[in-house]
Amino acid sequence: MSEPAVETRDLVREYRGGIRAVDGVSLTVDTGGIFGFLGPNGAGKSTMVRMLTTLLRPTSGDARVAGFDVMTNPDAVRRSIGVALQDAAIDPYMTGRELLRLQAVLHGLKRAQGRARSDELLGRVGLETAADRRVGTYSGGMRRRLDLALSLVHEPTVLFLDEPTTGLDPMSRVTLWDEVRRLNTEHGTTVFLTTQYLEEADQMADRVAIIDGGRIVADGTPRALKAEVGHPLLAVTAADASTPDDVARVLARFGEMVPGAHVGGAAVRLPGGSAAMADAVRALDEAGVRFAEIDLSEPSLDDVFLIRTGRHLEGADTAEGGPATDA
Amino acid sequence: MRGLVVSVGLAGRNLLLVRRVPSVFIPSLVMPLFILVATSGAFHGIGALPQFAGSSYLAFTIPMAATMGAGFAGINSGMTLARDLEGGFFDRLQASPAPRIALIVGPLIAAQVRSLFTTSVVLIAGMIGGVMLPGLASTLLIFGLALLFSAATSCWAIGVALRARTVQAAPIMQIAVFLSVFTSVAYVPQSALTGWLGTVARFNPVTYILNASRSAELTGMVMWSDTWPGLVAGFTALLLLGAFALIPLRHLENR
Amino acid sequence: MTAASPAIRQTAALAWRGILTTIRLPQAWVPSLFFPLVLMSIFTASFGGAPGRIPGFPPVRSFLDFAVSGAIIQGVLIGGTAAGSAFASDIEGGFFDRLVASPTSRVAILTGRLGASMTLAVSQALLFVGLASIFGARVAAGLGGFLVIVVIAALFAAAVGGLGVYLALRTGSAEAVQGMFPLFFALLFFSSAFFPAETMTGWYRTIVDLNPISYLVEAMRAEVIGGATVGTACTGIGIALGLAVITVGASGLALRRRLRVAA
């Protein structure tokens, strides 16, 4: 399919008082991939998703989802998309099975078809045993899985997940990631995923767009974006009589300094990578500079964000998912 | 028609909630019953007024209790909708390809089913108190008028819910129904009303709905001259309140 | 006396706080004015033809004279429930814990809330009688009668407030206390608050005759429409006092139990 799954041009959402939650966003999401939409709280992620899922009317600009215009053909869009929003919009008084069947009815599936589909999806997300319990009794992870199942009832071509793992424990988070990946590879569903967790975007997405204050500040594959930032970062903490300035003076010889990146010390980008680290340590020793800690880290999407906006991404340090080694 | 199937599906869900959420279910059952018993018991003596022409005050009260019950059965739909809007469940409905009108017709159908239930409860309670059913046609008319009223109040509550989007609007829905019934011929016939209430009741559509229902209840027949004003009043209210409920549907995506 | 005076000052302070917090929150006082007044005006307009035409109806100048006392009792009932739920909110919100942890006398915690209720009830009685007089009602027994009305209202407010506080202490939930409101409302209808008991029949009449609220309303009513005696006044005041003693006593015990558990 040559038609992109999602395409927007100068999309704007303005509220009374002139506040622009989304300020001219243009992006393209190719069919079949996982697209990560990353940004701090209040950046406009949810507003974008609501516009793309026909829940909110754009103030200006164009948006096409699954080949249909969001404003002139919303019904066609609704038939093609699956939606799992924040707060896992579900009714606590109904059972999982009842909710799935209701969703099937909403999408026009015939009764028998709807039942079969519900059972199948319950199995797929691992909720068969809890299917006839009221959703109010489900744990957070279970609710998100149900939410995912609900969004898949009609086999959508594009799936919108708005912060799907916020507030989940690490186990549930990983389970959800696996499920989403499987959807993408086995069914070819395009996934539009918004998140505030950078390693979620890093791990899951084929392409990433970073949004801040309603505008896109970066757009590309995670690898390309990080490569732009450049080289690994060496951070050294000053100790005893040595000051951060002492450390900085030595490190400045080895590459480009990154001011403000390391409190209590200094940080430098090492073009030579880990090999150059040994040289830098030796240089500090020779200069008589005392240091307590030394850390070499690969660039992250947070670094991308930092370079483009001068701030850290919120939630960069609070996400518990951890690097791939934890999985 | 897909809209109808979806509406029935949504109605089913609404009715499910009545069973599952006791704080909704019990008032729907108890309130009209209480009104019937308390009103006919406390104000029993008023039946001695000449304007009642000797009819039983209990029989006189049955239509009022049924109407009040229908009114509240109607606004329950609005309260559920408000809860859905506030909690986010409505997003799911809105993002689905369900026809927009089904989002209103579904709760409306549920309200009608509840209204059938409350009217039955009132009529049965009346029978226990000694007032027999007034005949098939009259009984059907009483049910019909209750359905008309619950449809109207349902539209009212849905309209409020779509605009307010919060459960805090529930008192507005409730007080409107209370006042609309109490400022009509709730306790005595029009001829016995004094002062400001006499004038207000004359312009209140609920007065004519109640009159039609009472005529059926007390005479045991369907008297067209008593009935048509009630039908006109009821359908007019339904039309206006229906518009009140439908108009926000166009602007759902503006919030 | 020196041991008592801090308790009195604390009661006054807490009562004043209770009054202020009530006034500042419309949903705390609007229902206690709105419902009784609306019902009173609807009943007066609906049943205006009753006096003189219904056998068993006491001799009154107008239905409004008849209805005022019922409205006052209704207002006190609603206001008292609000007081109980406010007390529960204090528990939920932590203000109660702060009081307990302070040198505030335990008695004052209770009497402060009740003091607020009683003061509000008296103001309400004043307001209702005032409004009714604007529309033509008169208190037949004059100032003395009005005092009887006020005393009964205050004592009944203590009784309802006491029950509200008791429920608050036992459930700790404002919602649970509010949930009791329909029951109280029902109790009001099963009394002679809105219509004379003499016109009622059967089992309904029996319940009404057993309901203490009927006697409170009738004692107040006698002062308004005439026919009050020392006997009726004492009955009303006595019953209100008795109810207050029971509920306030119960809430005192509940308070002590809660504090003992907490300690």
Please provide a written account of the structure.
The complex is a heterotrimer of chains A (327), B (255) and C (263). The relative contact order of chain A is 0.14. Chain A is elongated and about 80 Å long. Chain A contains eleven helices and 13 strands. Chain A has a six-stranded mixed β-sheet with strand order 6-7-8-3-9-10, with helices on both faces. Chain A starts with 5 loop residues before the first strand and ends in an 18-residue tail after the last helix. Helices cover 35% and strands 24% of the residues of chain A. In chain A, a hairpin with a 2-residue loop joins strand 9 and strand 10. The C terminus of chain A is likely disordered. Chain A is an alpha/beta fold. Chain B is mostly helical and 255 residues long. Chain B has one domain. Chain B contains ten helices and no strands. The longest helix of chain B has 31 residues. The model of chain B has no long low-confidence stretch (mean pLDDT 91). Chain C has one domain. Chain C is 80% helix and 0% strand. In chain C, helix 3 runs antiparallel to helix 8 and helix 6 packs antiparallel against helix 10. Chain C has 263 residues and is mainly alpha-helical.
